[in-house]
Amino acid sequence: MNSPGHKANILGNYDLIGVGVVIGAYTTGGTTYTTVAATQNFGWTTGQVDLDPGLGLTASQTASKTAPPPGNQILKGNATADILKGGAGHDVLKGFGGNDVLKGGAGNDALIGGGGSDALVGGAGNDRGFGGAGDDKVLGNAGNDFLQGQGGSDLLNGGGGDDALIGGGGDDTLIGGAGDDKLLGGGRNDVLNGGPGNDILQGHAGADRLYGGGGDDLLIGGGGKDRLDGGGGNDKLVGGGNADTFVFGKFYGNDTILDFENADLIEFHRSLWSGSARSLVDAARVTGDGVLFEFGGDSLLLLGVRNTDGLEDNISFI
């Protein structure tokens, strides 16, 4: 496609988009006219683009594509670092190779990073983001989003809405944000933070750190030596296999450890108890449900534990 009047030469491998039309108002001398501006056919290309030197422009290794409004678009990058921007519809953005930036915009979009270390931003709508290989950053923003890091050590942030986040193969950080979120780690050492709302966090394999945040959360450590901190709200904590650490502090609400074992450790905040571990155990009550630690309006129940013998060895203070 040659365009002498516009001083650009595009050599093959292009997708024809069509004719662009803009309608607007123009006022002069107190009279308003309707103006119509139209462009010739234009296209997207992954081929060579030659620019007239007289324009004072330079070529870049970064490709940029923006979806024309308002339909559902499929935007594809290439092996270099791409910038892809969706429009108002339900768009599909594919970065392929390179360190890409994908922005979905409005609508329920699908963002696929590909081979590099990518940045994916969902925007408004219920979006799906897949980081691919590389250390990716995937942000859902508003809406009920599904985000998956896949390969690499990724950062996933659901933002507002009831989101589902899956880490993948690396050392991932998952942040649910506002809403009732579901966070699943992966095979390595992950950090999961539910944020506000009633969240479900599961670490899977590896030595994971789980932070429930506000709300009534369920935290499940998995197979490694995990650290579980429910935060505010009435939380349920499951360490899983291996020796796990449970954290409890002031204003944490009424939490329950569902699978406390002899190898596990409980870290109490010093703001709750200024005495020794032995004196704390002596103050605990053995109930029909288990051993109960009470601190005014806060409490921690070790479900199924029938006595306090040797329990001081499982307690430390932070």
TrEMBL record:
Cellular component annotations (GO), alphabetically ordered: extracellular region
Q: Which domain of life is it from?
A: Bacteria
Mark the transmembrane ranges: none
Q: Which GO terms describe its molecular function?
A: calcium ion binding
Q: Which UniProt keywords apply?
A: Secreted
Give the main localization category.
secreted
- Any idea where this protein resides? Secreted
Q: Which SUPFAM superfamilies match?
A: beta-Roll
State a single Pfam family of this protein: HemolysinCabind
Q: Which PANTHER family match?
A: S-LAYER PROTEIN
Instruction: Write the protein's name.
Output: Calcium-binding protein
Instruction: Please tell me the species this chain comes from.
Output: Histidinibacterium lentulum
